[in-house]
Amino acid sequence: MKKLIAFVLFALISISTQAQEIKWMSFNEAITAQKKNKKPIFMDVYTVWCGPCKILDKQTFSNPEIAKYINENYNPVKFNAEGNEEIKFNKLTYKNPGYQETRKNSRNAMHEFISFLKIQGYPSMVIIDSKGKVHKTIMGFRTADELKSEL
């Protein structure tokens, strides 16, 4: 009986301490959410071939404190800079006319929205305020502590 109680307690503690994850959404979903909650958008701009982007996911965005902070204070977006998502922003539509489906898992054409954001490298994190202005761009890998101090 004691073993059963210990197991149940351990299971409950494990569940409650599981890492919180960032609730990523598309850019268009974030724009819709922003109209309701007025939170700024936090956009992780990445590419599928970018090594530091993958490390950012594994080491920084998986940090429970960072995940909680971003979820509570932003509409979080994960945006593939070479993807095929159509973006509607400030009465304009941005696409990736050079996108090739056969290259979706490697280098591809750059999305038009990346030029608008003036992204110069990956990973980049962009904060867009509730009025649609780019408030801040953070370029390059950041540890959880470094990112938290910049947010």
Shape: globular
Work out the radius of gyration: 18 Å
Kindly state the percentage of residues in helix. Answer: 25-40%
Biggest sheet strand line-up: 2-1-5-6
Give the uncertain stretches in residue-range form: 6-17
Mean pLDDT: 89
- Report the total helices: 6
Structural class: alpha+beta
The fraction of residues in strands falls at 15-25%
The string of secondary-structure elements, in order, is HHEHHEEEHEEH
Q: What's the total count of β strands? A: 6
> What's the story with the biggest beta sheet?
4 strands, mixed
Q: N-to-C terminal Cα separation, in Å?
A: 48 Å
Task: Summarize the structure in words.
By secondary structure, the protein is an alpha+beta fold. The chain has six helices and six strands, in the order ααβααβββαββα. It has helices spanning 2-16, 27-37, 51-61, 64-73, 112-117, 144-150; strands spanning 41-46, 75-80, 87-89, 92-94, 124-128, 134-139. The chain has a four-stranded mixed sheet, sandwiched between helices. Strand 3 (87-89) and strand 4 (92-94) form a beta hairpin. The longest helix has 15 residues, at 2-16. The radius of gyration is 18 Å and the shape is globular. The protein starts with a helix and ends with a helix. 25% of the residues are buried. The model is unreliable at 6-17 (pLDDT under 50).
